[in-house]
UniProtKB/TrEMBL annotation:
Protein's recorded name: Bifunctional aspartate aminotransferase and glutamate/aspartate-prephenate aminotransferase
Pathway as given in its UniProt record: Amino-acid biosynthesis; L-phenylalanine biosynthesis; L-arogenate from prephenate (L-Glu route): step 1/1; Amino-acid biosynthesis; L-phenylalanine biosynthesis; L-arogenate from prephenate (L-Asp route): step 1/1
Organism: Dovyalis caffra
Pfam families reported for this sequence: Aminotran_1_2
Required cofactor(s): pyridoxal 5'-phosphate
Length: 480
């Protein structure tokens, strides 16, 4: 008869009762969980098993017992998995969601997800696909219809030409990026990543047995990569440069002139490829404009362009992205996908065709969303710009503000402790202001905090009031 014991731990929560199943088939677990804070004590009881699987990291030791001997199962994990850090954005979003579901009025500004509904014409295309029985497997690379539509979009909007066999549709741009890394990187290769970076880039590089090489940028340079720094760090081991424009988490947009300087450096290194993450290309604020790296002279052969439908078309849950590039590389990604997930959802692909049919850059529906994002951005820039000790760079795209709050570090708060870094400041703001934000350390810059303004203006206004109020006790640490 097997007996199992489980130890459960999670950032910011503490379990007060061990979860030990009773003997018998109808055993249930119960307990209480409290949020650790300086002045609040939130208690949640009878958490569902599904929520436990989402919110906790569980280690389970199973012992098989018999009358004569005892065997312990080897629960060790691979070194590859142990080397990977969990996503802070996912952890904080889950934590804030748990608090909100328990009745705590948390304002959630951590997730990178538009707050708009998927445009009706896209949703209807998905519904019609179901009604018409379009619910079977598609070709591994994606339907011919969708890949042809992507080719047309890339030529008309980005100035780059591809054929359908140079396009691979996947279950989100995240999968597209990871498969590209697996396809082109060998053990010991270096992946060049400007910081601040999207949290998954370094971990994907490690999963591909490559070494992430982080190149810092400065808020005074709008978090844009210095070509001279890039040139000084390249070597024979350099295999892939990752560029994200508009950027998550900074909202920075690479001007075409700067991209051309980077391209001239890339051209000197035969092994160096470029992964251009353009998922936020349509969420951009004039006068800034988007330029695709593959459109630059001699860069088409070296570039894997990644894009998708989640951000601009508010289709995060539809899980659809794609990579475009030279056939040799895309075929390798296609081979990996064939043994990994196979083709993406047939329903989502029909919806994506409708999305690409909405007009240039998504037409009026997308421009309406971008207009709202810009209004929110302008409000936050004004609000935080009025605060002492706060530094920021005005984002030109995406829907994030990456704010430097490092002047508040070192402050001591009664009942909470010392604000030491971006992580402790975010915990303090979640505790005192009940606003969920993401610490900059997750993106490679501990001086900042990422604020997502993919929320209504009313919500953002309430969040600013709470943040400003909670920072008042910390003002003594801010240089005058």
């Amino acid at each position: 008869m097997a007996a199992a014991s489980a130890s459960i731990s999670r950032l910011g929560f503490q379990h007060h009762q061990p979860l030990v199943p009773n003997s018998g088939s109808n055993s249930q677990t119960s307990g209480s969980v409290s949020f650790l804070s300086g002045s609040h004590n939130f208690s949640f009881k009878s958490l569902e098993a599904t929520r436990e699987s989402q919110l906790y990291r569980i280690s389970v030791v199973v012992k098989a017992e018999s009358r004569s001997d005892e065997m312990q199962v080897d629960i060790s994990l691979s070194p590859r998995v142990n080397a990977v850090k969990p996503s802070k954005t996912v952890a904080i979003t889950d934590q804030a969601t748990a608090l909100a579901q328990a009745g705590v009025p948390v304002i959630r500004l951590a997730a990178g997800e538009p707050d708009f509904d998927t445009p009706a014409v896209i949703a209807e295309a998905g519904i019609n696909a179901i009604r018409e029985g379009y619910t079977r497997y598609t070709p591994n690379a994606g339907t011919q219809e969708l890949r042809a539509a992507i080719c047309q979009k890339l030529k008309e909007e980005n100035g780059i030409s591809y054929t359908p066999d140079q396009i691979l549709v996947s279950n989100g741009a995240k999968q597209s990026i990871y498969q590209a890394l697996l396809a082109v990187c060998s053990p010991g290769d270096e992946v060049i990543i400007p910081a601040p970076f999207w949290v998954s880039y370094p971990e994907m590089a490690r999963l591909a047995d490559a070494t992430p090489v982080i190149l810092p940028t400065s808020i005074s340079d709008n978090f844009l990569l210095d070509p001279k720094l890039l040139e000084s760090k390249l070597s024979e081991k350099s295999r892939l440069l990752i560029l994200c424009s508009p950027s998550n988490p900074t909202g920075s947009v690479y001007p075409k002139k700067l991209l051309e300087e980077i391209a001239q450096i890339v051209a000197k290194h035969p092994r160096l490829l470029v992964l251009s993450d353009e998922i936020y290309e349509h969420i951009i604020y004039a006068p800034a404009t988007h330029a695709s790296f593959a459109s630059l002279p001699a860069m088409w052969e070296r570039t894997l362009t990644v894009n998708g439908f989640s951000k601009a078309f508010a289709m995060t849950g539809w899980r659809l992205g794609y990579v475009a590039g030279p056939k040799h590389f895309v075929a390798a990604c296609n081979k990996i996908q064939s043994q990994f997930t196979s083709g993406a959802s047939s329903i989502s692909q029909k919806a994506a065709v409708a999305a690409l049919g909405m007009g240039y850059a998504g037409g009026e529906a997308v421009s309406t969303m971008v207009k709202a994002f810009r209004e929110r951005r302008d409000f936050l820039i004004k609000s935080f710009g009025e605060m002492e000790g706060v530094r920021l760079s005005e984002p030109q795209g995406a829907f994030y503000l990456f704010v430097d709050f490092s002047s508040y570090y070192g402050a001591e708060v009664e009942g909470f402790g010392q604000i030491e870094d971006s992580d402790s400041l975010c915990r303090y703001l979640l505790d005192q202001a009940q606003v969920a934000l993401v610490p900059g350390v997750a993106f490679g810059d501990d001086s900042c905090i990422r604020i997502s303004y993919a929320a209504s203006l009313t919500t953002l206004q309430a969040a600013v009031v709470r943040i400003k109020k909670s920072l008042l006790p910390l003002n003594s640490a801010v240089p005058v």
